Amino acid sequence: MARTMSNRQGDATRIRLIKTAEKLFAAQGVDAVSVRAVTAAAGQGPAAVHYHFGSKEDLLSAVLLDVGERVKQEISARVDTLAASERRPDLEDVVRALTDPYLELLLNQRVRGIRWIKIVVQVSREARPAVTATGQDELSLRLRDQVRRALPDTPSERIDQRWPIAVMSFLQSLGRVDDWAVGAARQSREELVAFYEDLVAFVVGGAERMLT
């Protein structure tokens, strides 16, 4: 009984630290937030992050996975479907394999989803252990293989250089979706979907222009 209660308290503390770090990382920047700032904001002792995660980098990995694991799984499943099909995908198929799970995230967890996207934008182009630990690098390579299938005449070097520009443009824009709300604190659900569809069209068109 005592051990069960202790485990529950430990899980609750871990969740509190993850959510607190998520808020601070999104608002202030990952590198600007100290471990001490996270523990203080979470109402925990100064050693709490080290006790529950080991390091700030491990905490960042936990933050990325807490919301992002479902997104990663959904993207992975879509990439698997594209890879298993004998039909060569077009570029929009590949873009939507990446982007549709982000829309689903924001439709289900708007506030946390936007925070998470802002963190991803900060760290996704950095070679840091927290990103590697999420498995995101391997998934990015698999997705890029489908870009190559969609654009067989485009040199691989060009795809490697320019496809990340399309991805980052999507993430940066989606992470600011509510900054462009007109006359409201944030866009409605219908406006979010319309914004997303416009953004996908923009990303597909821009990627085609860069890569073909």
Core attributes:
HTH-type_TetR-like_transc_reg, mainly alpha, Arc Repressor Mutant, subunit A, DNA-bd_HTH_TetR-type_CS, HTH_TetR, globular, 212 residues, 2 domains, 10 helices
Helix vs. strand class: mainly alpha
Strand content: under 5%
Quote the distance from N terminus to C terminus.
Answer: 63 Å
Kindly state the percentage of residues in helix: over 70%
Tally of extended strands?
0
Number of helices: 10
Mean pLDDT: 93
Largest sheet: none
State Rg. Answer: 19 Å
Q: How would the global form be characterised?
A: globular
Query: Low-confidence runs (pLDDT<50, min 5 residues)?
Result: none
Order of helices and strands: HHHHHHHHHH
- Domain unit count: 2
InterPro entries: DNA-bd_HTH_TetR-type_CS (IPR023772), Homeodomain-like_sf (IPR009057), HTH-type_TetR-like_transc_reg (IPR050109), HTH_TetR (IPR001647), PsrA_TetR_C (IPR041586), Tet_transcr_reg_TetR-rel_C_sf (IPR036271)
Organism: Rhodococcus parequi
Protein name: TetR/AcrR family transcriptional regulator
Pfam families: TetR_C_30 (PF17939), TetR_N (PF00440)
